[in-house]
Amino acid sequence: MSPISAACPSLTGGHAPDPTDTMQPHDAPASDSPTPATEPAAGTGAASAEQRLAELEAKHAEMADAYLRAKAEAENVRRRAEEEMAKARKYAVESFAEGLLPVRDSLEAAIATPKATPEQMLEGVHATLRQLAQALERHKVVEVNPPAGTKFDPHQHQAISVVPAAQEANTVVAVLQKGYLINDRVLRPALVTVAGAP
Fold this sequence. Notes:
Elements: H1 3-7, H2 39-111, H3 118-138, E1 141-144, E2 157-163, E3 172-177, E4 179-182, E5 185-188, E6 190-195
Parallel strand pairs: 2-6
Antiparallel strand pairs: 1-4, 3-6, 4-5
Helix pairs in contact: 2-3
């Protein structure tokens, strides 16, 4: 080979060496394996999810326990209320019966006095009636006895008939039988006659 060919390879058909053909150590391709920097991040996410799940399970257990306690307390309240109502009904009847005993005593005393005069008998009847009224009043039993001219109340009065009267229409003319309320509830309506339209 001539000195010219060695100096200029292109003139003889040769190729000059490519500087990139020689791989340097620092030019090695990147590895496909995950870098150590990403592994702690994945582990942290899993630990956070497990911690959240544990918190939710604890919260659920706490709520379930609170529900069971509230349910048991409600059941206890209901049972106590039923027992108190049963006792109230029982003792209410007992108290009412106790209030009527003096009335019975007075009636028996009147029967045991056959030689009593009519005046004495009438006085005894009035005294017994007062005892009965007091016993009823103590147990919130009040009479319904509307005076004439009172506006007819269908909730407390029961009209037996409509009669002509010199008063406003639809008002009470006369009471044929007293009514009674117990704790503001109608026990028996008053039987009345009512004024008709003129």
